[in-house]
Amino acid sequence: MKPILLACLLFTSALQAQTKYVFQQPEMGSPFTITIYGDDSAAVASAAAAAFRKADELNAILSDYIDSSELNRLSATGGQHRWIPVTPPLFDILGRSLEAARLSDGSYDITIGPVVRLWRQARRARKFPDQAQLQHALACTGYRYLQLDSITHSALLEKEGMRLDVGGLGKGFVAQAALDLLKQRGFPTAMVNAGGKIVTGEAPPGREGWLIGINAPGEKEALLPSLLELKSMAVATSGDIYQYVELNGRRYSHIVDPKTGIGLTHHRNVTAIAPDGTTADWLSTACSVLPWPKALRLIRSLPGTALLVTEMKNGKISRKSSRGFRNYLQKLYVN
């Protein structure tokens, strides 16, 4: 027993001696931050560089802002009745997107691209989308019209004018891929923050988990007093803090209800916790659209997930959370 105890003590000492390294650069239109604990600065820097390259590679495939991206090339085949072979990353995210759409009853829908483009124009022009254009864009959507063939790794877009948009889960997907690469490089104690979509590895030395703050409703800097403490989990928060347009005295979020084509007008933050970044990201999007009872049922159906909804009412913060959310709060705040 003594040799085993000695080995454990030596391992603990080595882990606590690790240094924290933080790297940041813009990716996917947002700050992309990688935090790694390690004892070899050169190896850590090399792993971080590889993770950023991974993010660049995936963005070149998945971005609907890049005309030449594989996602946009696939969208251009809508209504041509052709099965298009796609790369493994794109096939993976398409499959995850369809799963998210089915589980959320279409509250997350990767085919919402035509409508999202109209709302981007509306934010720039500060003008409500033309009703006829909005109805036409809606007619081009519908996740049931995206087909996948798992044998040939091909995709088919049945409707002309379809445009895919992975904005509701793409950052979580990329963050998870970056963290997985860091683990493969021998750095399990790491965290990746892709514009607020956060994935965590093993807990930092001497801690139970990574401490993560949650924005207060409508606030860019102010945080809720309770902190999350996560390890080997992911968290994503969706809201209209940064992307919205005010029209006729009403604020419309960049998050669009796939059924109506209208930007959300209820000003609340939705924070979802899940075992991986992709799931946390789409859950925060879908649960922004779903009414609370349906959002809660969705969370209860998915093991290892939790939900917090915060909004400002009469100058006070109102909170609703799923039963398991408290399990992820820093123990200092749990009664």
Keywords for this entry:
335 residues, alpha+beta, T-fold, 3 domains, eight-stranded antiparallel β-sheet, three-stranded antiparallel β-sheet, 9 helices, 35% helix, globular, disordered N terminus
* N→C terminal distance: 38 Å
β-sheet strand percentage: 15-25%
CATH topology of the largest domain: T-fold
- Number of separate domains: 3
User: How many H/I helical runs?
Assistant: 9
Q: Give me the count of strands.
A: 15
What composes the largest sheet?
8 strands, antiparallel
Describe the structure.
It is a single chain. This protein is α+β, with helices and mostly antiparallel strands and 335 residues long. 35% of the residues lie in helices and 23% in strands. The protein has an 8-stranded antiparallel β-sheet. The protein has a 3-stranded antiparallel β-sheet with strand order 3-5-4, with helices on one face. It has a two-stranded antiparallel ribbon with strand order 8-9. Helix 2 runs antiparallel to helix 7, helix 7 runs antiparallel to helix 8 and helix 8 runs antiparallel to helix 9 (292-300). The chain is globular.
Short description:
This protein has three domains: 20-64 and 167-202, no CATH class; 66-157, T-fold; 203-335, ApbE-like domains (T-fold, Roll). Helices cover 35% and strands 23% of the residues. The protein has helices spanning 2-16, 41-62, 70-75, 88-103, 113-125, 131-139, 170-184, 277-289, 292-300, and strands at residues 19-27, 30-38, 84-85, 146-149, 154-157, 190-194, 197-200, 210-212, 228-230, 234-238, 244-247, 250-253, 268-274, 306-313, 316-321.
